[in-house]
Design brief:
It is found in: Plastid, Chloroplast. This protein has helices spanning about 55-65, 80-100, 115-125, 130-140, 145-150, 155-165, 185-190, 205-215, 230-245, 255-260, 275-295; strands at about 15-20, 25-30, 75-80, 105, 125-130, 175, 195-200, 250-255. It is an alpha/beta fold.
Length: about 300
């Protein structure tokens, strides 16, 4: 990707980026995310053992507080030098308007919310969370598919809402939500405390992506036999028809079809996560600046 004409590095634009010896792509170190007392609302920052608390609300809250601990170490997200520069510059444009508010990514399963979310968190200097992972940790079950199997979708949705409620009291987070998080109005009341961004991916591309990796981790797709692509496409179409209006409530929409057209093609599968993240920052900036103008 070529840097846009007229873009010049700002002081500190390369902060957090490492240039490998001998050239090549730049990389950003993404620290392992941990919930710390500073990031927790007061009721989650208590020091008592949740398993010894007689208060079920406190016990559940404390279990959520420990749910994001990861092993020490870092993950690396690689970008080209041009992409890294643009990401850093656009992040600097957005941050003053964002003012510490959380960013919630919504969209269908397989739309890339986790991958794009990690890039956005890195360049914004935010922490990243995956709401599905938080639910898994909160209920002590290793996968969403198993939660559906052992309990029910309603049980999962109840815990998902509790997780989003807790996250909504925090700041400077990028949150990748589950594909169905948008169906409950209460969840929007939590997410609207921050900025919501819809990653809109064509269903055909989603079905091919999901069919290629399998549907075992997708409980809403793993119940029928037949051709993986055909059943994925049919179910995704049905789910999208149910959720389309809800996704449209997002503050910003990132259309992969639109990005591909701007690049002169119609193949969304060759778009890099960094390219999508750049478009997300552009859409976030557009929404936030328009909102600021109206307010003033």
């Amino acid at each position: 990707m070529e840097a846009s004409a007229g873009i010049r590095p700002r002081p500190g634009a390369w902060a957090g980026l490492e240039k490998p010896r001998g050239g090549g792509a730049y990389s950003a170190r993404v620290p392992a995310v941990r919930l710390t007392a500073e990031k927790l609302p007061p009721r989650l920052a208590l020091g008592t053992d949740p398993r010894r608390s007689a208060d079920p609300v406190l016990r559940a809250a404390k279990l959520k507080a420990s749910c994001c601990k990861k092993p020490a170490g870092t993950e690396k997200v690689h970008y080209s030098a041009d992409e890294a520069l643009i990401l850093q510059q656009k992040a600097q444009d957005v941050l003053p308007y964002l003012d510490g508010r959380c960013v919630y990514l919504v969209g269908m399963m397989g739309s890339g919310k986790t991958t794009v979310g990690k890039i956005l968190a890195e360049v914004l200097g935010y922490s990243f969370f995956d709401s599905d992972k938080l639910v898994e940790k909160a209920v002590g079950i290793s996968s969403v598919a198993e939660i559906f199997q052992l309990h029910s979708e309603a049980f999962f949705r109840d815990n998902e809402s509790e997780v989003l409620r807790d996250l909504s009291s925090m700041h400077r987070l990028v949150v990748a939500t589950g594909g169905g998080a948008v169906i409950r109005p209460i969840n929007w009341s939590y997410m609207k405390k921050g900025l919501t961004v819809w990653l809109d991916v064509p269903l055909d591309a989603l079905a091919r992506r999901i069919a290629a990796v399998g549907t075992a981790s997708r409980p809403l797709l793993h119940q029928e036999s037949g051709d993986p692509y055909a059943k994925a496409y049919a179910k995704l179409t049905s789910l999208f028809e149910q959720r389309m209006d809800s996704y449209a409530n997002a503050d910003a929409r990132v259309s992969l079809e639109h990005i591909a057209l701007k690049q002169g093609h119609n193949d969304v599968t060759i778009l890099t996560p960094s390219t999508i993240a750049i478009e997300a920052l552009l859409k976030m900036e557009s929404f936030l600046t328009e909102k600021a103008m109206v307010r003033n």
